[in-house]
């Protein structure tokens, strides 16, 4: 079948679309984008705002506390919140790299795969670093709760040390496995689909 | 409505057939097509302020519409199985007036069996877009466009001659 024949058939569809009115089009401009990058940006902005608001609330609360375990616990959580704020800003800057308006389909695919992969890798690196911090803080606060003398005693008891190391390893593996599974579920299929399309586009290029 | 919004809506009004066709190529049910239409319109609006007329307006629109349909947009899971294309009843009356046109129906079903990139290329070719512009929009060489178009035409011919049409 020749292309001209196909064009003749195709042209029959030209007049049949239900065209949208100006008010409907104007309404569309006020909607929220469902593109993967825009959705991620919205989520990160939400997390950043919640972190900042919770951080300010916690700071005000910490200032009312007398010196002691609770105050230092609050301060260490605040330090984590500051780290998280930088983490969200970095995530946003990774997502801002993608701009579908100025690239052809192939460059856009390369750029999107690059942005999403960088985002996912950054996410993975962050939790690899943050989970041991959470664990350390958990142990420290548990120790402070039970009393400092018993806490120091823990480090001289081989059995307790083994138990602590064992639970650290289990905690690390379970949390990283869960985060990997979650990321794969959220973005893995989409990135794989994009890579397939890019592979197809690259297959004929010398 | 601002002056920019008015200008943009006039532009979309003039070229909305192009967006409808992209939606029709990439989505099967009318709800999904409407969602994609809105997404493409939003992406065009976001890029409208930076469009300086370096390329033709149709090239710019195809580029954004296809980028949105192929890569930037995550489809909602709906109860339509793509492998059962023969079983799907296409609501052709949504798209053209009057009686069902068999050849057009065959062509549409055949096109939906192509890959996403092939669909983009055949659609632009059917819309009389020159190979140079197709190459620019997709990001491949003109020679590659020519080779792929021959393959796509052959594929369509095979599908359209083999498919048991009810």
Write up what this structure looks like.
The complex is a heterodimer of chains A (206) and B (166). Chain A folds into 2 domains: 34-96; 103-199, no CATH class. In chain A, 81% of the residues lie in helices and 0% in strands. Chain A has 7 helices and no strands. In chain A, helix 5 crosses helix 6 (148-154) and helix 5 (105-146) packs antiparallel against helix 7 (158-203). Chain B has 2 domains: 1-74, Rna Polymerase Sigma Factor, Chain: A (Orthogonal Bundle); 100-166, Winged helix-like DNA-binding domain superfamily/Winged helix DNA-binding domain (Arc Repressor Mutant, subunit A). Chain B is mostly helical. Chains A and B meet through helix 1, helix 2, helix 3, helix 5 and helix 7 of A and helix 1, helix 2, helix 3, helix 4 and helix 5 of B.
Question: How much beta of chain A, percentage-wise?
Answer: under 5%
Could you tell me the radius of gyration of chain B in angstroms? 17 Å
What integer is the average pLDDT of chain A?
A: 82
Low-confidence stretches of chain B: 78-100
Give start-end ranges of low-pLDDT stretches of chain A.
Answer: none
**Separation of termini of chain B?**
49 Å
Order of helices and strands of chain A: HHHHHHH
**What would the average pLDDT of chain B be, to the nearest integer?**
80
Keywords:
heterodimer; A: 206 residues; mainly alpha; 2 domains; 81% helix; elongated; B: 166 residues; Rna Polymerase Sigma Factor, Chain: A
Summarize the structure.
Chain A is mainly α.
Topology:
The complex is a heterodimer of chains A (206) and B (166).
Chain A: H1 3-11, H2 22-28, H3 36-64, H4 69-95, H5 105-146, H6 148-154, H7 158-203
Chain B: H1 3-26, H2 30-48, H3 57-72, H4 102-111, H5 116-126, H6 131-138, H7 142-162
Helix pairs in contact in B: 1-2, 1-3, 1-5, 2-3, 3-6, 5-7, 6-7
């Amino acid at each position: 079948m020749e292309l001209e024949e196909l064009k003749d058939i195709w042209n029959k569809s030209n007049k049949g679309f239900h065209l949208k009115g100006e008010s409907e089009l104007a309404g569309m401009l006020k909607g929220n984008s469902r593109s993967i990058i825009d959705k991620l940006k919205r989520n990160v902005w939400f997390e950043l705002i919640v972190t900042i608001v919770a951080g300010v609330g916690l700071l005000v609360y910490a200032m009312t506390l007398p010196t002691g375990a609770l105050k230092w616990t609050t301060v260490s959580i605040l330090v984590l919140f500051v780290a998280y704020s930088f983490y969200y800003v970095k995530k946003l800057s990774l997502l801002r790299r993608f701009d579908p308006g100025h690239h052809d389909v192939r460059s856009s695919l390369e750029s999107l795969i690059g942005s999403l992969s960088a985002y996912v890798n950054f996410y993975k690196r962050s939790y690899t670093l943050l989970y041991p911090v959470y664990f350390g803080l958990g142990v420290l606060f548990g120790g402070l709760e039970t009393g400092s003398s018993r806490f120091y005693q823990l480090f001289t008891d081989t059995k307790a040390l083994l138990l602590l190391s064992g639970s650290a390893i289990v905690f690390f593996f379970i949390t990283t496995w869960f985060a990997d599974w979650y990321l794969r579920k959220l973005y893995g299929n989409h990135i794989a689909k994009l890579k397939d399309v890019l592979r197809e586009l690259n297959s004929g290029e010398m | 409505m601002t002056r920019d919004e008015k200008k943009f809506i006039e532009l979309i009004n003039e070229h909305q057939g192009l967006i409808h066709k992209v939606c029709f190529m990439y989505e099967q049910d009318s709800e999904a097509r409407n969602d994609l239409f809105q997404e493409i319109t939003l992406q065009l609006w976001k890029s409208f302020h930076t469009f300086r007329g370096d390329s033709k307006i149709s090239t710019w629109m195809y580029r954004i519409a296809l980028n949105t349909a192929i890569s930037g947009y995550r489809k909602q899971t709906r109860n339509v199985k793509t492998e059962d294309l023969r079983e799907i009843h296409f609501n052709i009356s949504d798209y053209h007036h009057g009686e069902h046109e068999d050849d057009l129906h065959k062509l549409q079903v055949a096109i939906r069996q192509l890959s996403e990139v092939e669909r983009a290329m055949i659609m632009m070719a059917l819309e009389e877009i020159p190979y140079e512009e197709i190459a620019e929009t997709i990001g491949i060489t003109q020679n590659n466009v020519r080779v792929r178009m021959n393959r796509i035409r052959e594929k369509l011919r095979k599908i359209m001659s083999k498919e048991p049409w009810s």
